[in-house]
Please model this.
Amino acid sequence: MPIIKEEEVIQLEEQVDELVLKVFLKALDIVGGPRKLILYRHLTWVPSLIEACYAVVLKEKFFKTESEIASILGLTKQTVRNILTAKTEGIRENIETELKKKTIKTHVAGALAKLAFKEINQSA
Model:
């Protein structure tokens, strides 16, 4: 069994964080930017979006399982599953309706993160 050196772990964590930040910023752009979240008083959306971005990046780019992602993020396996199975179709059209709600649902955060990840990969 290969042993991973500490500097390799740090480098991997930095790669994950860098990609998650890009995905998060793209997701934020999709909802209309930070001003839109402030306008609707939805700064509470930020943690959910970040969690969803981590889940999507860990699954799609680093091939982690639902159980591994749940363990890493401190979420339930079902929450991770909801994020990863979220449908992206129509999310852009429904974002105004979602912004009027007080809390973001897991599947909405997941859909935004998945859409953002997809768009980043297409532009790369």
About this structure: The first helix runs from residue 6 to 30. The chain has one domain: 6-118. Residues 6-118 form one domain. The radius of gyration is 15 Å.
